[in-house]
Amino acid sequence: MALNPVLGKLVSKRVVLASASPRRQEILTNVGLRFEVVPSWFKETLEKSSFAAPYEYAVETAKQKALEVANRMHVKHLRTPDIVIGADTIVSVDEQILEKPVDKQDAYRMLSRLSGKEHSVFTGVAIIHCSSKGNQLETEITDFYEETKVKFSDLSEELLWEYIHSGEPMDKAGGYGIQALGGMLVEYVHGDFLNVVGFPLNHFCKKLAELYYPPPKHTVQHIKHDSIPSVDTFENLSDGESESSNFTEHKGANKLDSSRMCPSRPVYNCENSSSVRTGFTVPLENQNGASESAAKLPSKILDLMDGFKASKALFVASKLKMFDYLKTKGPLKAVDVANEVGTSVCGTERLLDACVALGLLEKTSQGYSNTDSANTYLTSDGEYSLHGYIIHSNDHLWPLFTNLESAVREGSRQNHRAFGRKAEDLFKDYYHSQEVKQRFMAAMHSIAHLTARDVATAFDLSQFKSTCDLGGCTGALAHELIQIYPNMKVTVFDLPEVIANISYFQPSEQCAAPVTFVSGDFFKDNLPEADLYILSRVLHDWPDEKIHVLLSKISAVCKPGSALLVAEIVLDEQKTHPARAVLQSLSMTEGKQRSGSEYKQLLEKYGFTDVQIKITGTLLDAVLCFKKNLSP
Ligand code: SAM
After folding, report:
1. Candidates 389, 439, 499, 537: which one to mutate for ligand 1, based on the most atoms within 8 Å of Cβ?
2. What CATH number is associated with residue 134?
3. Catalytic residues, which ones?
4. DSSP 8-state code for residue 397
5. Is pTM beyond 0.70 here?
6. Which residues line ligand 1 (CB under 6 A)?
7. pLDDT tens by residue, 581-615
8. What is the 3-state secondary structure (H, E, C) of 58-121?
9. Which CATH number does the domain housing residue 617 bear?
10. Tag placement on the chain: N or C end, fewer CB within 10 Å?
């Protein structure tokens, strides 16, 4: 692959992408760049009017994002990256800058402005080379921007709203994602498509080529850097000093001298045989049986092939509490971790290295230490610890997914194969032993605690005086509700065996008002009175008959004007996104995941109206609906 030598220059460097955008990560991963993701905390609040042109704003924001990460890593975490990459994408129309919409109305406003018109998408990129002199962080900044022109068709109101309700616009500059549903709105694109997706890869590689292979002075006038140098040119590039640095002289001279292409990967000559491969190009057969070297390395598929190994490495390191030891005692050498945990040194070293490769740990000459995310999410005692859910995934979901083939063949849950028993429902399975129950509750608690704020603030719930969280488990959401709405009385209703075990999960500090816990069976017993009922991650577990019982009961106790808040992952209308929900449904519980229109239909069937759906863009979405007023 042509870019490999340039990207190969970064192989031995600690490269950090200061962006949480999965699209940017995918673009860079797809070309084989290895990097750590440290999302920037820089708030995108620069005064737009102080910039003469929109692209200047994007470049400055990209620079500030990258500098914030470089500084934070240097000062707070005492590990200076070699390179930090920052990027910021904006849409500009009529000299106005559009960023991400804050809500659906904002998305509507943006998309209507783009309808039928040409607009510009600018991505500013900053590449910051960092070094540490004494205690000082030194930086060298290279920045650039790329502009792509995009024209939208005339968008009908219906199409606009359909698109907005898909949830796609919410985390995207200008309110659309060209790589998915938003592609349907686009009449033409002039310029780099990936720039619109979020990262101008072509320009980025040219910049790297300029930085790492500066043309020698005597050839400068002859070389126009308006395109990425061809493979031959790259093959000839050394560090800019040797005889091969004269591009024109050496162009094409060593086509078969593959030994110099990339020091980090074996490269084979692929010109004369369909059975040999380059590091990145595999010969394909077209329909006529002719061979064509067309495909790039299918990194997505390769990642999926190895995905189970990565999950298991995370699970085992968590189960052995390695992240806990490293948080309190790190950096530690493998032998010290092995001694703490009671494992073999060679096995521990391999597992720790795997965690480094997965971006969960850092490795320096002093030993292994946690990354920021490991400290926050993987230690067992962190406020936002996912430890409980990870252990549940290892001990419960892993054996179930090992039997996925049978689950698909038979269309049913595989608890009997995985655990040698099949209870009448999911929760009888979880609650048959104290140990499994405690594990399940810890798993629910970790996710609920992480998502509670998004659910509690998805809508303004301040009008409700009393709330009952049905199946509210440890009360993680209930406590968050009280924090946000101090005048709200919150009751958690759950099975007796759960309520008897909640004490371990209660916050140590006193809340504004205590949460009330009531035990009962929501299919059989009377429900506590409330003017807001919540079903968080409940509906997807049950078959239609059970849902009928539950929603009929809630509808019957709801007074007109009271409401029901459902927290679930809402699928898109095709029911193929987000993948998390689609994969979850593979465990073949009798319940199912639903799209926005399916939730609307379901809730309306039980007398709820004004169904509003909020796609939060995080782990759980929210659906709010109101009990119909009695007809006048
Ligand atoms: N709402 C919590 C959350 O979002 O994290 C927990 C969700 S968990 C998947 C489902 C909850 O429903 C569990 O706490 C379970 O004990 C509770 N549950 C299951 N069957 C129930 C029943 N018949 N009556 C009351 N609660 C029940």
Report:
1. 537
2. 3.90.950.10
3. 88
4. I
5. no
6. 427, 444, 447-448, 471-473, 494-495, 498, 521-523, 536-538, 541
7. 999 999 878 899 999 999 999 999 999 999 999 98
8. HHHHHHHHHHHHHHHHHHCCCCCCCEEEEEEEEEEECCEEECCCCCHHHHHHHHHHHCCCEEEE
9. 3.40.50.150
10. C
